[in-house]
Every structure is written in C-alpha cells, then in structure tokens.
Known about the structure:
Elements: E1 7-12, H1 21-24, H2 32-48, E2 53-56, H3 63-69, E3 76-79, H4 88-101, E4 105-110, H5 112-122, E5 127-131, H6 144-156, E6 169-171, E7 174-179, E8 182-187, E9 190-194, E10 210-215, H7 227-232, E11 242-247, E12 254-260, E13 263-275, E14 280-282, E15 288-292, E16 295-300, E17 307-312, E18 317-319, H8 321-330
Parallel strand pairs: 1-2, 1-4, 2-3, 4-5
Antiparallel strand pairs: 6-18, 7-8, 7-17, 9-10, 9-15, 10-11, 11-13, 12-13, 14-17, 15-16
Helix pairs in contact: 2-3, 2-6, 4-5, 6-8
Amino acid sequence: xxxxxxxxxxxxxxxxxxxxxxxxxxxxxxxxxxxxxxxxxxxxxxxxxxxxxxxxxxxxxxxxxxxxxxxxxxxxxxxxxxxxxxxxxxxxxxxxxxxxxxxxxxxxxxxxxxxxxxxxxxxxxxxxxxxxxxxxxxxxxxxxxxxxxxxxxxxxxxxxxxxxxxxxxxxxxxxxxxxxxxxxxxxxxxxxxxxxxxxxxxxxxxxxxxxxxxxxxxxxxxxxxxxxxxxxxxxxxxxxxxxxxxxxxxxxxxxxxxxxxxxxxxxxxxxxxxxxxxxxxxxxxxxxxxxxxxxxxxxxxxxxxxxxxxxxxxxxxxxxxxxxxxxxxxxxxxxxxxxxx
Length: 341
C-alpha cells in the first residue's frame, strides 16, 4: 500500500454463517448484505480514530469494496494484491499478507472457522473478531462501530497493555494438532474426532458422531462442543485449564448440553478430565475425521495413525473491546476542544 500511518486489516468471509447447522439446528445467518453494513460501521469507527489506511481481503461478493463505495472516507481503503478462490486458505493468506505489511490490528467477520485460519496467518497482530458465523465461541456479537473504534484505538497507540490498567489485548490459548508426531495445524476452541471415515458435510451437530473432544478453555456459557467444558467442570470456569472428553452415547453418564444453536441434547460422557497448559493428549486410535473448531477437516484412514493434541498458551492476541475504548477515553482520544470535569 502507498502512504504511511496506522494500518488496519479487514478479513470478511463471504461464506461464514452458511453451513448446514442453519438447516438441521437453529443456527443464525448473517447474509453478505448485512456484512457490508457491518463493515461500513467498522470503517466509520476506524476513520473517527484517525486510522490512515485499511487493507482488506478481496472476495467475489465485494463486501469491503461495496461498503467503502457508499462512504465519503478520509482513509485509504485498498484490496490486498491477491487472488481468492472462495476457500478457507484465502483468509489465512490475507492474514499473512497483512502481518507482512505491518498491520496494527485485523478486524475479522466470520465464525470460529474463519478466525482459526486467520490466526494461523496473522502472527502477533491483534484481532478484533466480529461474529457473523453459525457457531461462535471465539468471535463475539459486537456492534461494528465499537469494533472499529477499538481497532482504531489500538492501531493509533492510545489503547495498549499498561501497568495498573485493564488488559486491552489478551493472549488466547490454542490447540496444536500433530499427526504421527508431526505438527499439522491448530484450532482455537476445540478439536474433535468423529466416527465418520469421510469429511462430507463439515459441520458437527450430532453427539452420536463424536468420539473424542479436546477443549482449549472452560467457560460457563458457550454453544457447541465448547459448552461441554463449563457444564462438566463449573469450578474451573474462567481458569487456565482445557479439557479432554470421551463421548459414548451408550454411557449411563449423561450431560444435557447446547451442542448446536437451538439444539439441547443429552451427550453420553464416558470419561472427562481437565487439561493443563502444555499438556498433550492422544485421541483414541482408529479411522475417523478430525474436526477443528466445529468443522471436519482431516481424514484419518489408517487405524495405526496417531493423533495428538497439545494445549498451548501462545494463541492469537485479541482486543478486548470495552478495555480498548476505556483506554482511549482515558487518553483523551474522544475529547474535542474542551475539557470535561
């Protein structure tokens, strides 16, 4: 990109919120026109904070391009010079390019799957995730204007981690997956082995398909596989543990869980325990598919193949919206020409 000054990236996934859980459960859907509206509000927030440049992932629907076209903006908005093919690796490549450009923050529009691949490419660039997916644990529902203000505050340097102040950017955990001893990829929220021998429809929503689940965090109010941790281990909520869970629908131990939006079902729990950071767990052997953050991604055909999952602290850095805006306000970023007592 030409010029200088604070740079914020935008990765808006046109495919997010369109998986099968909209049909078999009650998953929400944010269409691409609404994503355009969200991006408009993000751009207004970035502009208000004095961000000079925005670089974005191009896509076939033109989400960011259409959003910017209707606004009279002072900041430069340019696409990344890359081809896109409507596949998840588009978002990973865009994140990698934004990191190489020195982006100060990246705003994402998508669900857990979108943010997983962005996190694979963004390095230490802080993320501002906006939920537009079907299952959302990592990204949260946040108004686009506030997301833009928070990302802008981080980009211009008025919101940062400082002693004796609320943490503006938090490091989230991740789950590293190794196949036969070799690192393959990472997930943000959960890794699951299913009894299917093929990927098929990627989304998970039936407990009878599940075999093993590993979670990166224990929170009390989540949707999808992530809900299992907080319901099994309420005393560990908000701590630094993950969990490893063996699923067996014939087990007499049952757990009522919101396994998908609008779908609250009994899940058979054969075994479950907390997982410490740095700990590695081996999934049970046998042909399966491995799902990452709710979507089947890896076929395992050989019964001798080993699958190991390690809970790591050094996941993506994520901007806390409220803390970022509070820090910006404390720095006087919203005051114009007068003092407030």
